[in-house]
Amino acid sequence: MKKLAVIMAVLFLSLPLAADLGEGELSGYKSLFMKRIISGNPGRESDIRRCMDGIIKDGSAGVRLIDKFGLFLYDSRRNGLALEKIKFLRDGHFYVFMITLKDSSDGGLYNLFLEYTFDSGRGAYALTDISFSMVFADKIKSVSEFFGGG
């Protein structure tokens, strides 16, 4: 439980992570994430690629979704969490990610649910819902902010 608290705390500090992570290494994590999400969701590659190329805006700045997920995968691995599976669903303007992670130290499984909506007026995605295993419940605000919620 303590290990997961540390993992989640590090996740929320995405700027320092970016400084520690080289562009080539980040590219590898993004590629791995794309490979896993596409292989786990046959027939949805077009929707997945379109979504991953999208941007989460914060004021006048923005970050691509795939960059967020690449950083997430990097940090998860650094902290002993392995990506088990990713489910992706699209329903109109809603995009849902269900991510299962496995803790290498105790074999525990943790589920993260993220729902984004595409705002065509802004040309960007916004986090509309998030939930995860109870162990993360005290960190909901920080996790929401990390994935683009306000």
Account of the protein in words:
The chain has 150 residues and is an alpha+beta fold. The chain is 42% helix and 33% strand. The protein has six helices and six strands. The chain has helices spanning 2-11, 14-20, 23-39, 45-52, 65-78, 140-146, and strands spanning 55-58, 61-64, 81-91, 94-103, 109-119, 124-132. The strands form two sheets. The chain has a four-stranded antiparallel sheet, with helices on one face. Strands 1-2 form a two-stranded antiparallel sheet. The longest helix has 17 residues, at 23-39. The radius of gyration is 15 Å and the shape is globular.
Topology:
Elements lengths: L1 H10 L2 H7 L2 H17 L5 H8 L2 E4 L2 E4 H14 L2 E11 L2 E10 L5 E11 L4 E9 L7 H7 L4
Antiparallel strand pairs: 1-2, 3-4, 4-5, 5-6
Count, helices: 6
Report the biggest beta sheet as strand number plus sense, adding barrel if it closes. 4 strands, antiparallel
Radius of gyration: 15 Å
- What is the share of helical residues? 40-55%
